[in-house]
Amino acid sequence: MAKLLHPKATAVWLVDNTTISFKQIADFVGMHELEVQGIADGDVAGGVKGFDPIANNQLTQKEIDAAQDNPLYKLMIKTNSAAAGEEKRRGPRYTPLSKRQDRPNSILWLVKFHPELSDGQIAKLVGTTKPTIQSIRERTHWNIANMQPIDPVALGLCKQTELDAAVQKAAAKKAAEGEVMSDDERRKLVSTEQSLGMDTEPKIPTAIEGLETFTLGGSMDVVDDEQDDEDDDDKIVDADSFFNLPAGGGDDDEDDDDQPRL
């Protein structure tokens, strides 16, 4: 529904120039009936100049005549087809000056944890430009070395519902294109409430052959440690045997000593 311009000034004009009841004027301008009566008595809106709703394309003379003839008739504001959808006008999101320095950190967070989001979606969420997003994606931003990924919801740059809606839209678009999503991507594409309620899935290696039947709770054969110790003892060679001389070696030395020297 279109909004009335200058409701109090319009009420002043209707009180001064028509015989419409206070109740009808109050319903039309969004004021209390006693306020309109105070305008007629001069106690309210003193010094306010009347605003002509006919000249400003908010009412027609036919509408005023119908209200004057029937005290139960409700005035309807004249719609302006040129202004239809004006409240939904698209434009860059306004970011307060105190939070603009944190905007690159939020972009880095979105690029890192939600790479499926398009540049247009990120620009709409945090109120930035596509060249800035592209520079952060390619890590060519002038301050990339000092940037830290921070959740834009925590920074107050966007609402959680807006982020969830963008993520769901990215999921629908990816599914429509027929692209296969990994488990990690699918987990990111669900809303925050759904992701928090998910059960933690065990990460089992899938790239190594021979581990298809690998279980964490399976029983293992117990090896007899005592038998292994005995086998190891049999294999160990006595260190003194390395220093024993061969058999007969000592006798040869003694025979040499018994022979007279010339």
Description:
- It is a single chain.
- By secondary structure, the chain is mainly alpha-helical.
- 45% of the residues lie in helices and 0% in strands.
- α1 runs antiparallel to α2, α2 packs across α3 and α5 packs across α7.
- It is elongated.
Order of helices and strands: HHHHHHHHHHHHH
Helix-strand category: mainly alpha
Low-confidence stretches: 200-206, 218-223
Radius of gyration: 44 Å
> Could you tell me the mean pLDDT?
74
Can you count the helices?
13
N- to C-terminal distance:
139 Å
Summarize the topology.
Layout: H1 7-17, H2 22-29, H3 33-41, H4 61-69, H5 103-113, H6 119-126, H7 130-137, H8 152-155, H9 160-176, H10 183-189, H11 192-196, H12 225-235, H13 249-258
Helix pairs in contact: 1-2, 2-3, 5-7
Main attributes of the structure:
single chain; about 260 residues; mainly alpha; about 0% strand
Gist?
The protein has 262 residues and is an all-alpha fold.
